[in-house]
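Protein Record: Sequence and Backbone Structure Tokens
======================================================
Tokens: labelled as protein backbone structure tokens, with as many entries as the chain has residues.
Task: work out the structure tokens from the sequence, keeping to the layout shown below.
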Amino acid sequence: MKAIIGLGNPETKYNFTRHNIGFMVLDRILLSYNIKLTEKFKSFFAKKDDLIFLMPLTYMNLSGEAVIQIVNFYKLEPKDLLVIYDDISLDVGTLRFRKNGSDGGHNGIKSIIKHLSSKDFNRLKVGVGPYKGDIDLANFVLQKFTKDENEIFNQVATIASQAAIDWTNTDFEHLQSKYNKNWL
């Protein structure tokens, strides 16, 4: 069993913000497979065959609270997880798969690392930057996309959703060579 986890914030006021790109990607997957979510595990949750889909409702900074619930309930290992989230250090349009690593200053990832007691889970980073430091970081990641940016992020979310599905049945090195690049 594997789990694809999209990170974001649950209130509609956060829709179409950089910080919610994980939710946008997961939305594309759910739509393509006509999967409906229910509320469970402090999340919007769905299960199809041996694949779990999760959108934590705990808000970004407490994402680990939801993730640990599915890990414990389904007896998953960190390597069974793919966490999709925004990365301010990557240019818009860039995807990057990683097997492990630090939180890189991302509070959602920091929370997951803390609750799993492990850094060894798969990640799909979606570039939302570069962040240049000219405005407060929280304001940067929580601002709405412009009309032009929204078109770009919709394209990127579609590519990332295919990448996430490929993760379920493709070796990691192949995923990295295929998807780790700027798509725009």
